[in-house]
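Input:
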Amino acid sequence: MALVGYLIISLASLIYVGRADLSKKVYAATGALCGFIFMTSVWPRGAEILTIELPLGVPWIGMHLRIDQLSTFFLAVINLVSAAASVYAIGYGAHERHPMRILPFFPLFIAAMNLVVLADDAFTFLWAWELMSVFSWALVLTHDYATENRFAAYVYLLMASFGSLMLLMAFGLLGGADGTYQFSSIRGASRDEWKAGVALILVIFGVGSKAGLVPMHIWLPLTDPAAPSHVAALMSGVMKKVAIYGFIRIVFDLLGPPAYWWSIEPITLGAVSALVGVLFAIIQDELKKVLAYGTIENIGIIFIALGLSLAFKANGLTAAAALSFTAALLHILNHALFKASLFFGAGAMITATGERTIERLGGLIKLMPKTAILFLIASLAIAALPPLNGFVSEWLLLQGILLTPALPQWGLRLLAPVAGIVFALRAALGAACYVRVYGISFLGRARSKSAEHAREVDDWSLGAMLGLLIVCISIGLVPGLMIDAISPVTESLVGGRLPAQHFSQWLTIAPITEVRSSYNGFLVALFVVISGLTAYWIVHRLWPRPVRYAPAWDCGYVDPTPLSQYSASSFAQPIRRALGGVAYTAVEHLDMPKPGDVRVAKFGVEIKDRAMIYLYGPICAAVLAASNRLNGFNYLKIQEYLAVVFAALILLLLVVAI
Amino acid sequence: MSFLLDLLRQGIQWVLVLALAPILIGVIRKVKARLLRRQGASILQPWRDIIRLFRKEVVIADNASWIYRFAPYIIFAMTWVAASLVPTFAAGLIFSWSADLIVIASLLGGARFFLALAGMDIGTSFGGIGSSREVMFGSLAEPALIMIVFIVSLVAGSTQLTEIASFMLSNTELRVSIGFALIALVIVVIAENGRIPVDNPATHLELTMVHEAMILEYSGRHLAIIELASALKLLLYISIIACVFFPWGLAPHDASLSEMGRGVFFYIMKLSLSGFLLALFETSIAKMRVFVVPEFLGGALILGLLGTLLVFATRSL
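Output:
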C-alpha cells in the first residue's frame, strides 16, 4: 500500500540524517508518491467501491479501509496539493535551518490525512485523525525557539484534543446495533432523530475545531504563521478539507436521512465564520495571518453550502441539494488549490526578503516578476473574479441560495437571505483584502532595505505555484467538465446530480436550466481578451506616441521617502471603521505631543477578538480558578491520597449502580 | 446565415454602447450646466476630450510596473464586455446566455480590482487614498448589488437579464420588493460611478476625491481609456435599470431592421431621461463626508435585504 510508502520515506529520512541533499530527496520521493496516488485516484475505474480489512489496530476488530466516490475525491484533492507542496519544498526546504524537524513528519502527516479519508470504522478514523493532529502539531513546533510558536502549538493541541473529544462522544452516540463501530453498521443502524441531532452538534464542534469554524478558530491564525510555508499550505489548504470530509462522511453518509433543522447550525456558524474571517483578514499585517483568516472565511462558505444542501435534502429537493453540494465540493477543491499557491507565494516572499509583515514590503513586482504574476492569478482566483475558478463555485452557491424559497420551513427561509447577504458582503471584502495584500507588497515602492534587495525564488517553488494555478485556470474556463467529474460523489451522497454539463452548447454551465441561469467562463474570458486586444490595437495604431518616463508627481515636488505611501493599516482603516465592529473591538491610541514638544508622536491600534473576550476569556479564568482551588491535592499525605482514591471509587460505583 | 446575423446584432450592441457612453456623460453635463444657467458644452464634448487625450503624450512615473500600463486596458475590456452583455436595445442577443447578472456584477468587481491596484502601483499617497476608499465603497456597494440581483431574480425566476426583462414585460403589477430594488440600485449607481453626493467627478480635492485620486498619475491614452471605461460603467448601470425595471421597447432577438431601429430609439430615450434625472439629482444635493457614505450605502444594503425577505415571505409583494 502506498501509505506504507510514506512511512518508509519518513524512516529513511531518519536513517540518513545528515546526508547532503537529504531534504531534496525526501521531498522528491514524497512528491512522486503523492503524484502516484493522485493519478490512481483520478484514474477512471467505474463505480466500484473497494474495501480492505487489515489485521492491524484494535485486536479482534481490525482496521477497515474503504475507497468510495467521496474518498476518491478527497484523495485526489489531498494528493494533488501535497504533491505540489512537496515540489515546492524541494526548493523552499533548502533554506530550512533545522530540516530534521520537518522531514520525518512531513510524509507522515500526508499519510495520516490519506488514512482519515480511507478509514471505514470509527476507531481507525479517530486514530488517523489523532495522528493527523499530532504530526501537524510537531510540524507547527518546527521553529520552537520562538515563544509565539510554542504558544501556537500549545493552543493548537488544546483545540485538537477538544475536537477529538467531541468526535469521540459523537461516535459513542452513533454506535451500531450490536455495539460495533464499523461505518457500515453505523450506516445501517436506526436511531431517532434527536439522538442523531445531538451527534450532529457534537460533530460540528469536533470538526469545526479542526476546520477553524468561529468560535473554534483561535488556533488557526497562530499556527499558520508558525509553521513553514509548505506545511502551512497543507494545513490550511488540505487538513481543513479533511476535517470537512469528516463532516460530510458522518452527516451525509452515516447519520441517515437528515431532518431540516440539522442545517441551521452549519449555515449559521458558516455565515459567522465567513464574515468574521474576512473582517479579520483585512486588517492583518502579517501575510500568513491574512491567509489563515481567509481560510476561516472560505471554510465558512463551504459550511453554508453544505448546510443548504442538508436543508434541501431533508425536504426532498434533490436537484437543489445536488447543486449546493456540488458548490461545496468544488469550493473545497478550488480553495485547496489557490490557498496552497498563496501560501507558496507567501513563503517565496519570506525567502526573498526575510520579512513577514507586508508593512515592510513593497515594489516586489519588479524584483520578483514571476512570483508577482503567479500571486496575482491566485489573488484573482480567491477574490472570486471571473473567469477563474473561485468565481465558479461561488456562482453555483449563489444559485443554490436563490433556490431556497422552495423550502417549506419558515426558519430556513428567513435564514437563507441572511446567509446570502453575509456571503455577498464577504465576497466584496475578500476582493478588497487581496487588493490590499497585493498592492502593499508587490506594488508601490520598497518600504524597507530587505524589500529593496529581494530576488526571484528558485524554479521549484515557481513550478509548484504554476502547476496549481494551471488547474485553477482550467477549472475556471471549463467548469462543466469538473462539475461532471464530481457528479458521482454528489449522486452517491445526496441521491441526485446536476444535469450533465458537457453536452451543453460550448461547455456552458447551467445548473438547473439554461433559462434560469448559465455561465460560460471560456466565452467571457475570450470576450475580455478580444475587447482588450481590440482596444490596445486601435489605440496604438491610431495614436502611436512613445511613452516618456518621469519622476512620480506628488503635488508639485518629488516624493522623498517611501514612508509617505499608503501603508497596509491605513489602507484597511476605512473598512475597519465602517464594518470591523462586527467581529472585534478596535481601540486606537494616539499620543500627540504638544506644540514645541520634541517627543515622537505615536499611534497604535489594539484589536481584540470578541470570541477571546466573551468565550475564551471566561473559560480560561474558570480553569485557572479551579486549578488554584485543586492545587492543594498536589500536597497530600499518602493516607489522604488513599482516602481520595477510595472516595472516587465509591462515587463511581454509585454512579454505575444508579 | 442567421448565425452571422445574430453575430452582427451582438456586434452592433458592442459598438453602440461604446459610442453612446461618452455622449451620456455629455448629456448629464449639458443638463447640469443648463440647470446652473450656463450654456454648457456640446454633448459631444466628452468624446472630443477623450480623443484629445489619445493624441497626447503618455508620461509614466519611473517606478511604474506593467500593472500600471496594462490595467487601463484590462479595466476597459472587462467593463466593455459587461456592458455589451446587458440587453440595451434588443433582448436575447446571441451571447446573452454566456453571462448572467451575477457575472456582470463580478466583471465590474474585476475592473475595480485592477483599478485599485493601478492606484497603488506608483506608491504615492493619493493613489493609496483613492484605492482604499474605493474598495470600502465597493465592499458595501457590491453586496447591495447582489441583494438586488436576489430580489429581481427571485421574482423573475432567473438570473439572466433577457429572461428578467421578458418577465417584467409580461407581469406589470407593482411589487414593493421591486420598488426597494429600484431605490437600492439607484443608490448603488450613484456610489459606484462616483457621482455626487458620494464623489465628485469634477473635483481634485484630496479630502473628497476617490475615483480621481486613483487615476491621478495617468495621462494621455491611458487616461482616455480609463475615462472611457468609467463612462461605459455608468451607461452599463443605467442600462441595467432600463432593462430590468423599464423594459419597454426592447426589440426581440430576431428583430428586423426597423424593429431594431425602434429598439435603439427607445434605448436612447431611456438613456437621455435617466441622464436628465441624474443631473437634476446632482444639482440639488451636496457632497457628503467620506464616512457618511457607508451609511448611505448601508441603506441600499438594508433595502436589498428587506426586499429579499419580502420575496421570501410572500410571492405577491
